Amino acid sequence: MIEEMKKSTVQKLNNKNITNAKRKPDWLKVSAFYGEDYKRVNGLLQKYHLNTVCQAANCPNRGECFNRGTATFLILGPVCTRNCRFCDIAPGKPRAVDTAEPLRLAQMVKELKLKHVVITSVTRDDLPDGGANQFAQTVKQLRKIDSNLTIEILTPDFKNEAQAKDIIIACRPDVFNHNVETVPRLYPSVRPQADYQRSLALLKYIADNSSIITKSGLMVGLGETMEELQQVFEDLTHSLVSILTIGQYLAPSKEHLPVVRYLHPDEFLQLEAMALKAGIKKVFSAPLVRSSYKADLFSLAE
User: Fold this and answer.
1) Per residue in 69-84, pLDDT tens?
2) Domain-wise residue ranges, the chain
3) Angle at which helices 101-112 and 132-145 pack, to 10 degrees?
4) 181 in the Ramachandran plot: left (φ > 0), alpha (ψ -120 to 50) or beta?
5) What number does CATH give the domain 31-298?
6) Do the beta carbons of residue 218 and residue 182 sit within 8 Å?
7) DSSP conformation class of 262
8) Sorting pLDDT into bands at 50, 70 and 90, what band is 16?
9) DSSP 8-class letter at 168
10) Residue 181 contacts residue 153 (beta carbons within 8 Å)
11) How much is the pTM?
């Protein structure tokens, strides 16, 4: 009887701060942006035949970012070889690598007069190097147009292949970002084709073998516990990650994993404090934070 009462009390405490996951709270509602800068970025994407993760992943901040004249470029096509249950990017069989894409991307960056650029990609398990060379060629073209440009790349795990990791180190981006996304217990349901330890190993390898700043990202609201998040913060610190972003998971559709709960903004401040205490140098934690959201302001800030 006593044990049952204890379990009941724990359940009540766990449910205390849970917001009804069927209704999005006010702090997650964003206004639509359709200004001139938004139209300009969209027009340039069409002109140069480029993709952005902002559109492909249906990011809630894309209007704001486009109106700031920024975007996170998605290279290697809009089709992914994996099928993570949280992601809105289409899975399937990708097309051949577009070798002219790096130059077109650099030309658009030049036209936008960007000072910081973020490059990400779909996962390309069909390629021997996982797409690492396309990242390297893109960085090379960007360096040609502006040697002072800061470049952040957000990559898949490349299956932790040595060749891919060394290609990335050799191209020397300013920031290397790879998201662990969630706690290890949830990997089988959230990202079944990925591996938590593999992601940690990739981040640590880059940090151990270069001076590149390393960064990772987490989404919350999928049923993880504070204890599990604390362990992830410690794991990322051990893997020498310098920057961490934490944001609320939002289900792209009814076919994707449902939101288990919406965390209150105060809880994000608590997570930020926990991660900083664990040893991560810079933490950006808020409901609408995404791994590349305002990266030009955050990633290299003192």
Assistant:
1) 456 899 999 999 998 8
2) 31-298
3) 40
4) left
5) 3.20.20.70
6) yes
7) B
8) very low
9) H
10) no
11) 0.86
